[in-house]
Amino acid sequence: MPTLEPTGHVDMVLRFITVLALLGWNALESLSLRTPFPGTMVALWEYPVWRFLLLFTIWLGAEWCPRVGVMTATAVLFYVVNMIQIF
Amino acid sequence: MSQPSSPKTPNTPKSPKVPKVPKAQAEPLIDTSLEAWIYNIRSVLHFPSTIFLIIGLLVLGTFIENVPRKVIQLLDNFLGMTVLFIFPLGVSLFIGWPAGLLAACISLIVFARIKKMDTTETEDEEGFLSGSDDTVQTTKLVSNPHRWFVEQVLGETPLAISSDRIQTKRTEDNDTRTSSSSSMSSSYTSDSAR
Asked: Most buried among B42, B61, B74, B179, by the most CB within 10 A?
């Protein structure tokens, strides 16, 4: 069961950094129509291993911390939907 | 100043003496009721069901692009949409919150795929045949670093081309005056015969 409260100082800092980074990514990259995704990420969409890892990250983040899971799911979802629209 | 050391004494109060229980009574009682049996089965199968469900969701989300259109179209109705919304709720209730979040993402990806199919079917470019019968997407990544003149002028940096092959329709002429025996008959229209 994921815990809302961090288990220690290191865990708290890591959670905060991860949530902050994902928040920035979602605000500046995913939600902005003017900034396209990097070409590397677009090229990687063809590989099933990349898509598997992205979805696995959602579950892993949610197991670690609910906030990280939600932010990861938002980022991955925007990316996947964009790629579905392109391809 | 040092105090004389006193012998250590336990702080806990003396526990009352527990009467010895015979071995026959110490063994745990097995609840043979149906409710206990179901609870036991659920607790035993919880871990493998979680693993199998998460692996299945990951595989489904990974290969959602390769699912044929006819299978996806089965969900393009009221019942299918209801299933797509209720499924994550059920997973989060019976399996766990992280698995429910993953199921919700997969449902939204399927939903996006359905909506994309709807938009591609409605888009009917005049004069061109839409490749709606194709089950495989024909989008290709731009591997050539050199940009076309039009792209340089318009400031575009395309990453992929959705379709590089276009099927065009032949202009149909219903005029009966043109002869069909000649190979050049299609170029002679009623306008050119004035």
From this structure: B61
